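Retro notes (design track)

What went well: tokenization of the new backbones is finally stable.
What didn't: we kept losing track of which sequence belonged to which structure.
Fix going forward: every design gets posted as structure first, then sequence, in one message. First example under the new rule, 480 residues:
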């Protein structure tokens, strides 16, 4: 058998995604905030792209026209008087001079400060504890150990390193480290730097001078029983009445199991909807949220040829301008296509889910991506991308577009009900149940079958209940 090299021609077809096409697909799935970041970055990097500012241009034109009209109506002598007048003495305390500024700063210094100078950042847990550490009568070695302890706390305030690890790192004895730890645990918030929830709550009880042996035993040995509502065995073990046990549990519930959570470094995230749907008489109006989106155009400077003369520019400059021009045009087209696709998808969702927009979540119908894709003649993947991280403001609140796509549950009469509508019904039933006799999953399934004619199994109810973060009936039961 011999080996040889051959050349042969082969004709084939394949789809090649250009960088421009990849960019257009990427823009579809970006959230509103991410899209603004991409546009701002492109404005910085591409000299051929600029933001349209209609208001500024109009204001400048109006001001210049007004000045011209004033000059035309005044004589040359009057214009000279205006130019050479001593406006400082004339305006007095209303003059916008340095003297007036100093006076204004003395009267109201806060208004003269910048926003950054008046902005107060949120205090972190570590910063709060380190501040307290410096105020204590600690030795230098104790401060080093204290800083190491504080540096090993998680967001809940729990210590994530062992005493031995801290002792080895600080070249100290475990007993010495433990003594520093005990003092830090009584810093504000009380119970911080604990190693488990029992230690955290016991420190808080100690700070309250609670030395009841039953209460201490409940915290140290029976927190899981209390969490799972296994109250009857505890009543028998400690020989307590229900009323007294209720008092003990109330004290335990008043303690903070996560003392560091109030010092979370993350601020609340506010959602700015991409689309607004308003009800107008018997119909609905869809409006895209264009607020904050810069209006883009090709740079008038380059378009007019003022910066680069194509006849004299070298090849490298010409190619650069052409490349950036194509990039700018493609970005503007991609943005327009993204907004157009978003509007069409919302139109289709409104068409399929009109009862939701009229009556709320209970009327949400089953819907899949394929139905919307076929309705607007687009691919399912395009619909999937454009509904990711996009939010719509409706008469019933703000929802992610993915919310409107849900599976179907069959009904006794042959119809179908959306899973989100069933979840809403389960949530309502749990909210209205009697606390001392909570509904089991089987009971909820029976009620759904009876009242809504929905064919649903107990395990499906359990799955939906867990998705709603609703505990089981045994954990929801109130004994007092």
């Amino acid at each position: 058998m011999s080996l040889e090299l051959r050349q042969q021609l082969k004709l084939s077809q394949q789809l090649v995604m250009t960088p421009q096409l990849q960019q257009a697909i990427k823009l579809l799935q970006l959230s509103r905030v991410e899209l603004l970041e991409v546009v701002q970055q492109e404005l910085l990097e591409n000299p051929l792209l600029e933001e349209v500012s209609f208001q500024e241009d109009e204001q400048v034109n109006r001001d210049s026209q007004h000045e011209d009209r004033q000059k035309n109506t005044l004589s040359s002598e009057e214009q000279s008087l205006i130019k050479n007048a001593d406006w400082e003495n004339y305006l007095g305390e209303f003059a916008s001079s340095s003297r007036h500024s100093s006076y204004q700063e003395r009267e109201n210094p806060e208004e003269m400060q910048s926003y950054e100078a008046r902005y107060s950042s949120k205090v972190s847990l570590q910063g709060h504890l380190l501040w307290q550490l410096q105020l204590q009568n600690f030795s230098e070695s104790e401060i080093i150990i204290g800083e190491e302890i504080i540096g090993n706390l998680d967001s809940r305030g729990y210590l994530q390193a062992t005493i031995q690890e801290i002792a080895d790192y600080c070249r100290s004895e475990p007993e010495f480290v433990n003594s520093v730890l005990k003092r830090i645990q009584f810093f504000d918030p009380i119970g911080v730097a604990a190693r488990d929830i029992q230690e955290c709550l016991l420190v808080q009880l100690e700070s309250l001078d609670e030395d009841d042996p039953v209460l201490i035993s409940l915290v140290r040995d029976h927190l899981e029983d209390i969490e799972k509502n296994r109250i009857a065995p505890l009543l028998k073990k400690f020989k307590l009445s229900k009323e007294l046990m209720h008092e003990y549990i109330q004290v335990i519930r008043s303690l903070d199991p996560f003392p560091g959570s109030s010092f979370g470094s993350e601020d609340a995230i506010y959602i700015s909807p991409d689309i607004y749907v308003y009800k107008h008489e018997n119909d609905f109006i869809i409006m895209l949220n264009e607020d904050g989106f810069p209006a883009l155009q090709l740079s008038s400077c380059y378009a007019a040829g003022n910066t680069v003369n194509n006849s004299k520019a070298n090849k490298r400059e010409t190619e650069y301008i052409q490349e950036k021009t194509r990039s700018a045009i493609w970005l503007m087209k991609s943005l327009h296509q993204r907004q157009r696709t978003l509007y069409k998808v919302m139109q289709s969702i409104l068409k399929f889910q009109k009862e939701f927009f009229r009556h709320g979540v209970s009327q949400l119908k089953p819907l899949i991506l394929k139905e919307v894709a076929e309705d607007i003649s687009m691919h399912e993947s395009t619909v999937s991308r454009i509904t990711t991280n996009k939010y719509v403001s409706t008469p019933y609140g703000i929802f992610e577009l993915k919310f409107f796509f849900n599976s179907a549950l069959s009904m006794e009469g042959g119809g179908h009900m959306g899973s989100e509508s069933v979840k809403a019904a389960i949530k309502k039933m749990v909210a209205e149940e009697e606390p001392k006799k909570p509904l089991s999953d089987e009971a909820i399934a029976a009620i759904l079958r009876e009242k809504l004619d929905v064919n649903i199994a107990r395990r499906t109810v359990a799955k939906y209940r867990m998705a709603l973060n609703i505990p089981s009936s045994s954990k929801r039961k109130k004994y007092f």
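Added context from the reviewer: The longest helix spans residues 315-352.
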